[in-house]
Description:
Blueprint: E1 15-17, E2 20-22, E3 29-33, E4 40-45, H1 49-66, H2 71-87, H3 89-100, H4 104-124, E5 131-133, E6 141-148, E7 151-155, H5 163-175, E8 178-182, H6 188-201, E9 208-210, H7 218-226, E10 231-237, H8 240-250, E11 256-260, E12 265-269, H9 275-286, E13 297-303, H10 307-319, H11 339-354, E14 358-361, E15 377-380, H12 387-390, E16 397-403, H13 406-414, E17 418-419, E18 421-425, H14 429-438, E19 443-446, E20 461-462, E21 465-466, H15 471-476, E22 479-486
Parallel strand pairs: 7-8, 7-10, 8-9, 10-11, 12-13, 12-18, 13-16, 15-16, 18-19
Antiparallel strand pairs: 1-2, 3-4, 5-6, 6-22, 11-21, 14-15, 17-20
Amino acid sequence: MDHDRTAPELVRNANYIDGVWKKSDQGRYFDVVDPATGATIVRVPDSGAADARAAADAAHEAFATWRKVPAKARALIIKRWNDLVLSRQDELGALISREQGKPLAEGKGEVAYAASYIEWFGEEATRVNGDVIPAPVPGRRMFAVKEPVGVVAAITPWNFPAAMIARKIAPALASGCTVVCKPAEDTPLTSLALVALAEQAGVPKGVINVVTASRERTPEVVDAWLDDPRVRKITFTGSTPVGKHLARRSADTLKKLSLELGGNAPFIVFEDADLDAAVEGLMASKFRNGGQTCVCPNRVFVQATVHDAFAGKLAARVGALKTGPATDPSSQIGPMINERAIEKIERHVEDAVRRGAKVLVGGSRLPAVGPNYFAPTVLTGADATMACSCEETFGPVVPLTRFENEDEVVAAANDTPFGLAAYFYSRDVRRIWRVAEALETGIVGVNEGALAAEAAPFGGVKDSGYGREGSVHGLDDFLHIKYICQGQLD
């Protein structure tokens, strides 16, 4: 299916507030651009504080009734949303590919991934159970019940515009919360399309509210929610500096926070690993979405005894990757999201080469393909002094570093402020448990490159944030516990 065949009724160019599609309060708009061509797809509202406050007003009013809707009734609505999303998988996948740039197969795969969270939390809505606590004295009953936190502000990134919306909004709805949402300025169309389907599924007015804003006006929108005591929770996926800002600004109203922030994931290949499996695992984890994921390996450590063999196998696989737009069904790597992303990737590669790294494959832009393309790249001789070891590259670049022993590589893997994901390959069962427990991350992949699943808790430690998304733990982040004690019952 060509990505220009996106269903027109799914392409919305308005905010959604209190069940109404409307323009920005001040009538401003900004362009949503196709990263493969630089062409404008459509213009959407460039919202400000007034729009954000209107969304919060609607969510606050709707919360009073939505929280009282029986869990089974909420679950049925969420499941209808899931069914509608899956029924439009091709069109939504095409829309993702067009505004985000990922190949069409990945775009359609992301829709299925997003739907898995909607379905999961639709089922979990009926399982928000409390506790009966044994009383220490006669005549007393003690209970712990779970209640929705209230209005939730969801701020989502551009790299997975469907999955991140689903992973935040679905548990909010399941728990009885209402939502105000600001999708990423680069990819708002998928979010708006998903909300249009939620409306069709029967989500009442005011329960979900979405405002779009340019990069310049995003702080104005978010600050309105940060200052509003009725907004009781922030759920954010994005950079660590922004996450820390949200945490500081939330202190005055003591909002609950879920922060899924930056990563610097190590990928370790031990000498006892199955090298072919390790190469395939690295390809799956690194080149998904062109390396533009928060959990993709950023530092690849290979034990010296197998380094050259692994590098050769990897270079052959990476060199065979097809880079191109989503309109080409053979494309495996799409464009980067924008020029800023390309500039960062280019800077990282140039810095590594200047400091002694060697380019095995790739290493440059691909202007003949389009404006935002970078060749999938393998570097050898990388070390901790290089920018690609200290910052998220967020692109299709694999820097290889040799190591000698387990203690050395675990220390190197942990020598970062970040702690989101880590990967390693080994066939030694004793080493597997030693290393899995020693790595300072919230997620560890052992002989596995594809980590995420709706039933698993997703999140990090250290500067990668706190809180979890997905799983029963992800639902708990939208609830608080109330203790009820009743006496004089004897």
